[in-house]
Write a structure and sequence with these properties.
By secondary structure, the chain is mainly α. It has 3 helices and no strands.
Length: 146
Amino acid sequence: MIKKIWIAMIAFSVMTTSASAGDFCSDSVPLTEVIGAANTLNDSNDLSTGLVTTSANMLALSISLVDAGSTANTEYVEAMLQLSQDILDMADKIGEMADRILVMADDIGDMSDRILETQRIQSANLVLTQTNILKAQANFNSILNR
């Protein structure tokens, strides 16, 4: 309910600001855009609140692990840290492979451009060759018909 009142207050504020601006404000913002922006702001606020809650929970968990001290299973924590490091290393290798693939794709594109240019030149040469052969045949026919 408070959110709806807040949205209505923003919409009214924008309308009165637009009306009181006189010549300084030539464009009026549609009410639906104002409400959409307010809804987006509410969604952003909700996400921010969720993030703060999650971070507080993570802090509480880390504090409980620190307080647990020697009772925490250090082998488990070390295994999780090693797994995290292995995942990071694998992600780095995947990134390097992706870079290589992009370079290779660029090289293939360059090669295909060269192939197309070669085909264009060869097609023109083929047409010229056919024309020359036809002219030569016509010349030979004219020699033989004399």
